[in-house]
Amino acid sequence: MLIIRDLKMSLGGRTLFENASFSVNYGDRVALVGPNGAGKSTLFSIILKQKEPDTGVVERDEWTMVGYLPQEAESIGEESVMDVATGRVDELPRLEKRLHELEAAGDVACPEYLEAHAKHDALNDSQAEIKAKKMLRGLGFRETDFDRPAREMSGGWIMRARLARLLVMEPDLLLLD
Ligand SMILES: Nc1ncnc2c1ncn2[C@@H]1O[C@H](COP(=O)(O)OP(=O)(O)OP(=O)(O)O)[C@@H](O)[C@H]1O
Ligand SMILES: [Mg+2]
Question: How much is the pTM?
Answer without folding.
Answer: 0.91
